Amino acid sequence: MLNRYLYRFHQALERRFPEQRLFLKSDTETRFIRLRPGTQIIALAGGTLALAWTIVATALIMMDSIGAGSAREQSVRQQALYEERLNALSTDRDLRVEEAARAQERFNVALAQVSEMQERLLASEDRRRELETGIDTIQDTLRRTIKERDEARSEAEAATFALNEQSGGASDLGRARDAMATLEILTSALGLTAKERDDRLADAEAAQEEARLVAESKRDLELRNDAIFAKLEEAVTVSMEPLDDMFRDAGMSPEDILDSIRSGYSGQGGPLTPISVSTSGVPLSAEELRANAILSGLDRMNMYRMAAFKLPFSMPVHDSFRWTSGFGYRNDPKGAGTRMHKGTDMAGSYGTPIYATADGVVIHAGPESGFGQLVTIKHDFGIETLYAHLSQVRVEVGQRVSRGDRIGDMGNSGRSTGTHLHYEIHLGGTPVNPMTFIKAAKNVF
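and the corresponding structure tokens:
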């Protein structure tokens, strides 16, 4: 039974795969190789498997290649977006610098206006007091004049009555003439008194009208002063918050920094000196208290400005550049394995100017192992900045520099694979991420 099935299976194979012969002919003889159906099936299966493996391997290789290409393109796109974002931040930083400068100018103009208005207000107050004193004097004079007029009328009536009662040596005509002369004199005196009274009344009315105008002017001036104070208070508050956030984002206490600045600048006087209490013991008015609060805010902003120049919130490169390596562990570009990268790298053109990011004193200027041409600047608050791989150093040890001073040129010296600046910030001797300071200042400078 089994043999019959095997026979039928063999016959079916021979119909599908008939026996083939492969002839091999040489100069002396001819040979052939018999290819039975089983051999053909094995060869076909092997070829099919080889073809399938080739297709699968090719597909895997193509998928890897496409995936690698997509990753590279995505990385390039991300880098381009990152560079665009950095350029936008740089532009925004410049705009913030201009806005801060304009705000400072507006503060100075507003402060001058406040001083001028305060002087006008004091002058108006003095004028009002003088007018009130003048009105009181006029009223006293008017009352005295009316009293004198009434007394003169009484005397005139008494004199007339006495003349009418007289008898004796003078004739009636003489008495009449004397009475008329006396009446004329009294009438003239009364006319002058009435005219003087009318003039005093007119002066009093004019003085009252002027006092009313002065009072209205004083109220208008107080309203304008209140509006100016409100705008100044709002401007100081709005300008102070980004400065506080900048120092906190940089990991530093604003109060400690301001205390240190005040201890170094303990002198008194100047345009931001607070209004002092009167020597007579009179307390300050509400306007003077508000002015003191605004001056205190402006003084705080001035302290922040001095502190900002002493801390590395500025950029060391002002020309176009690109970020190439950040702070943290990375694969060493020289093939030395994974190493800690203590700063951030900015690649640009050879000879690009490098600027100090804060006020300080140069403590190193020259070659340094691994860093090439290196400049190190010591700042206040235990901070140091390092500028490595320079092509040229433009400062000397012991030289005091200000923020924005040119200290060198970008190069490729030392352990470097291309033209770039290696920038580090050390806080208390420990390297910190420079981007912390750069990002903290992006909304202010």
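(Above: one complete record from the training split.) The CA atoms of residues 69 and 214 lie 82 Å apart.
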